[in-house]
TrEMBL record:
A Pfam family recorded for this sequence: PTS_EIIA_2
Matching PANTHER family: PHOSPHOTRANSFERASE SYSTEM MANNITOL_FRUCTOSE-SPECIFIC IIA DOMAIN CONTAINING PROTEIN, PTS SYSTEM FRUCTOSE-LIKE EIIA COMPONENT-RELATED
Protein name per Swiss-Prot or TrEMBL: PTS sugar transporter subunit IIA
Keyword Acetylation: no
Record's keyword terms, sorted: Sugar transport, Transport
Residues annotated as domain PTS EIIA type-2: 3-150
Length: 153
């Protein structure tokens, strides 16, 4: 699966009030680059209410908001590391929440390839050293290079 990963899609040490603000910021970057359709942001926010994506990974908790392929023109990942955590619903348990420091906004436009990519991505987020390295990075190009090395090879 061809997934675009670019330093323009990475926000380091972003200050956000809540998850909606972060998702909106990342979705607007992807919209400006033509990666997603106008419907993408609304669809991600609606899906997040029904199927939360916060994960209690250690040492850094993450979230992977996404939506259906029909809202994407191409495939890409946008990333935000936060100065302070924002609260996401816990994946698989919409009554619990998790304070997240890294958000990976996934835009995947090929429904038939999503399962393969998500399997690879799941292995990636289980590497606590890499996730911590992304959180501590102050360089967007460095974060993009980590993602390319791990997900596109």
């Amino acid at each position: 699966m061809d997934v675009k990963i670019d330093e323009k899609f990475v926000l380091n040490n972003y200050e956000a009030k809540n998850k909606e603000e972060v998702i909106m910021k990342l979705a607007n970057i992807l919209l400006q680059e033509g990666v997603v359709k106008d419907s993408f942001l609304r669809s991600v926010l609606e899906r997040e209410k029904r199927f939360p994506t916060g994960l209690p990974t250690e040492p850094v908790k993450i979230a992977i908001p996404h939506t259906d392929a029909e809202h994407c023109n191409s495939s890409a990942i946008a990333v935000a590391t936060l100065t302070e955590p924002v609260r996401f619903g816990l994946m698989g348990d919409d009554k619990e929440t998790v304070d997240v420091r890294i958000i990976f906004l996934l835009a995947l436009n090929k429904k038939e390839e999503q399962a393969i990519f998500l399997s690879k991505f799941s292995q990636f987020i289980c590497d606590s050293k890499v996730i911590e390295e992304i959180l501590l990075a102050n360089d967007s190009s460095y974060v993009a290079s980590i993602l390319k090395d791990r997900l596109c090879n």
